Amino acid sequence: MKPKVAFFDFAGCEGDQLQVANLEEELLTLLGQVEVVSFREVMKEHSDDYDIAFIEGSCTRLQDEDRLKQIRKNAKIVVAIGSCATIGGINALKNYKNLDEVRKTVYGENAKLFDTYAARPIDAVIPVDAYVYGCPIDRTEFLQVVKSLLLGKKPDIPNYPVCVECKKNENICAFERGQFCVGPVTRAGCNSCCVNEGTVCWGCRGLVDNPNENSHKEVLIKYGLTVDDAIGKFKLYFGWQEAKR
Amino acid sequence: MKILSKEDFSDFVNALIKDDSLDVIGVKSKGNKFAFGPLEEASELRLDYDVTLLPPKKYFFPQRETLFTYNIADGSSAKNAEAKPSVIIGVHPYDIVALFHMDEIFKETKSDPHYFEKRNSTIIIGVNIQKMSKWNFSPYMGCATVDYGYDLMLTDLGNRYAISVGSQKGGELLSKYAKNITGALARDIQLVGQKKREIVNMSQQKFDFPIEMIPELLKETYEESGFWEEHAEKCLACGSCVLVCPTCYCFDVKDNPDLALENVERVRTWDGCLLEDFAKIASGENFRPTRPTRYRHRYFKKGKYLFDRFGFISCVGCGRCSSNCLPNIANPVDLFNDMYHETRSMGVQLAPAQTPEVNIQSEGNIDYVPKLATIVKKVVMTANETLFEIKMDDGSELGHKPGQFAEISVFGIGEAPISISSPPTKKGTFEICVRKVGNVTNKLHTLNVGDRVGVRGPFGNGFDVDSLKGKDLLFVAGGLGIAPLRSLFNYVLDNRKDYGHVVLLYGCKEPRELLFSEEMQAVSRRPDVEFKSTVNWCPDNEAWGGNIGVITTLIPQVSFDPNKIHAIVCGPPVMYKYVIADLKARKVPDDHIIVSLERRMKCGVGKCGHCQINQIYVCKDGPVFNYAKIKGIPEAL
């Protein structure tokens, strides 16, 4: 019997599910391996009978925790997909601010009607079995993770920085192009896609397990960033991880 | 030496490009940098480049390479298509020397067919350096010019190229595709000589001492942990320095299934010893966990370990590592100069390193494709360990020695090194005792009798059963350490009269983790074996009438003649130093202590670099070591 899979979203843009929907031909092959029972972005049916739950988005309010716990109960395997679900993502930018002010900025007079708390990744609420990092996720890596789970294997997610992929791809280092990049502390696995296109790594896959943050901040400053801007570079995606370290 | 006008050289390159049977590769510009890439037009060639982003090794040892593909259902495999002949134009001399280093490394013991297939079907057209990168120190390494290793070597003489023909293949290529070749005049030959002399003075880097001292200098500095911590403090562990290196050859191997889960590519990718998980094994143990130790390992590998093994310092001075290091800590010239001054300030007198005795043997090719085998018996031993009896499908014997290991493939998942638990005296099949720790072993536990696996090996040296003949033997096994020891222990029992007094000490954490319990009971009843077992603790709900305490608590309970006894020790990494200390306290001589060590043995054939303990490859030089030989090797125990 094919494993049943379901997709869920929390605070996020649903861009990761869009990446899955955009698998096109590969999606058809994938559907030979799994049965999708819930996927709001592409179908209207829904079932609570599933084996693998893919969760996008971060948890940003207390009442969402119950829904997450229910998903954990229903699913054999929980996979967090995308930056918001895996590392807190850019949602965690608000954690640097006063949350009441954040609510007022977004909801104005009605602020008190909307709860909020510090944005956090899914594994801050429930145990997570596998991670597909990225903003958005990389389709190839998503498939890699799905194949691994189907074969009963722990997905092989790199614990080395994006520089490894940049070197293999013979990219000219962003710093040599006069730009500022957090690739040296960011978990690889995206095949350095942003730098391949001539831009920089923003850090959407989060920090490697043991980043040398101080050294990299020094590098950013040595190449001309102000201290504040260097710290800002780390805030964009690493907020939750940095707060935990 | 030949002469070709620049116009005729362009025609020559275009003629090569036009020939569809050849892949023609050359140096092209990429932004304000340069890279080797496929040529579509001779005009794309930039022979005035300073250095390329990656060295040309990527054409022989690609960033990602499929070793073979196999079918998940039955394990049957298909080899790759043959490499297409190619011509690489514009290789600088230091990169030519680097390829020579790679050749030696990939040839040692057994040749790597994937590397040499591409190497042998490629023609190298070198070019003498016209601009030198500011990081380049190849003149110091003797690699700024070269007299071997190329098929053709170009020197730019303004409106023409002087071409040295380095091989018959090179000469034939020239006469087949080039027109209007003339012989070089004495003036041209002189000019080439002059250019080469100029190149040797082009470096902007400066060593403060003769580089022949590097191996000795490293030796003096190994223990200076402060030196390494200070120099590696800013290391990002990003691997840039090793990934761009023309002589780095470490690799990882992974299985990549297709989406239909029918066929799998076994893929080899570049790896690097600076990366955090490089020496980490499935159980989570990391044998080089800190940045300074990994940083040190890189310099030792280049300047000492490979020098001792091959007789050359495996650095050609291209400067790529220096230029790619954002915190600017990877420049070998700076590091070695610091090391030199620090060593001098400590008052250490250094002599140039003695050229080591190099004895590189090579026989046959490595076969990365596993043989098929079938599980014929499965005995669940504990919650985490299971014994598998395996039979080769072609009816052959594995042909192992006690203490050797095999690389076991679980189809769809990957390959892992597993020690062989049965003695060679057991014919027709072999046994492995497997703990669930990683992907391969977890999946292996779900397989059943009749299921297929892949087997490569046996690998490693194994125990020297002949030299142990007539000796008293003390086996000390901790936990899963019994698995490799059992191959020797049972061999000794099968040849009992050849050996003296035999003692087996076996310990594990708690009673329910005891392995081979029935066999152990049988052993305990044997009059010709002294057997003692222990557990670290015994929970209330488990029964245990024996010794409680760590394995070393058993050592005082046995009597032996330290001069006659040979101790054979295997267990978790933490166990060795305590057991060895206790044996030494009992006056057992160092060379009577034999250990079997565990590391990340990815390839099994001394190539991938993961299992290296300082200069030693555990998969090839071990896993069995005489303590007297490794006690001075700091990373060993």
Characteristic key phrases:
heterodimer, A: alpha/beta, Rossmann fold, B: about 625 residues, alpha/beta, Elongation Factor Tu (Ef-tu), domain 3, seven-stranded mixed β-sheet, 17 helices
Topology:
The complex is a heterodimer of chains A (about 240) and B (about 625).
Chain A: E1 4-9, H1 15-21, H2 25-31, E2 35-38, E3 52-56, H3 64-74, E4 77-81, H4 83-87, H5 99-107, E5 130-132, H6 139-151, H7 163-168, H8 193-196, H9 213-222, H10 227-244
Parallel strand pairs in A: 1-2, 1-3, 3-4, 4-5
Chain B: E1 2-5, H1 6-18, E2 23-30, E3 33-38, E4 64-71, E5 77-78, E6 86-91, H2 93-107, E7 109-111, H3 113-120, E8 122-127, E9 152-156, E10 160-165, H4 168-177, E11 182-183, H5 186-199, H6 214-221, H7 225-232, H8 240-243, E12 251-257, E13 263-270, H9 291-310, H10 320-324, H11 332-345, E14 362-365, E15 371-380, E16 385-392, E17 405-410, E18 414-419, E19 430-435, H12 439-446, E20 452-459, E21 472-478, H13 482-494, E22 502-508, H14 517-525, E23 529-535, E24 547-548, E25 565-570, H15 575-585, E26 593-596, E27 612-613, E28 616-617, H16 618-621, E29 624-626, H17 627-630
Give the gist of this structure.
The complex is a heterodimer of chains A (245) and B (637). Chain A has helices at 15-21, 25-31, 64-74, 83-87, 99-107, 139-151, 163-168, 193-196, 213-222, 227-244; strands at 4-9, 35-38, 52-56, 77-81, 130-132.
Report on the structure:
The complex is a heterodimer of chains A (245) and B (637). Chain A folds into 2 domains: 4-151, Rossmann fold; 163-244, no CATH class. Chain A contains 10 helices and 5 strands. Chain A has helices spanning 15-21, 25-31, 64-74, 83-87, 99-107, 139-151, 163-168, 193-196, 213-222, 227-244; strands spanning 4-9, 35-38, 52-56, 77-81, 130-132. A 5-stranded parallel beta sheet of chain A has the order 2-1-3-4-5. In chain A, helix 3 links the parallel strand 3 (52-56) and strand 4 (77-81). Chain A starts with a strand and ends with a helix. The relative contact order of chain A is 0.13. The mean pLDDT of chain A is 95. Chain B is of the alpha/beta class and 637 residues long. Chain B folds into 4 domains: 2-199, no CATH class; 211-345, no CATH class; 370-459, Translation factors (Elongation Factor Tu (Ef-tu), domain 3), CATH 2.40.30.10; 472-596, Rossmann fold. Chain B is 26% helix and 25% strand. Chain B contains 17 helices and 29 strands. The longest helix of chain B is centred in the middle third of the chain and has 20 residues, at 291-310. The A-B interface holds A 26, 29-30, 32-33, 143-144, 147, 150-154, 156, 159-161, 163-164, 167-168, 170-173, 175-177, 183-185, 208-212, 215-216, 218-219 and B 30-33, 35, 53-54, 63-64, 233-240, 243-244, 254, 256-257, 259-261, 270, 272, 275-277, 291, 324, 326-327, 412-414, 438-439, 442-443, 446.
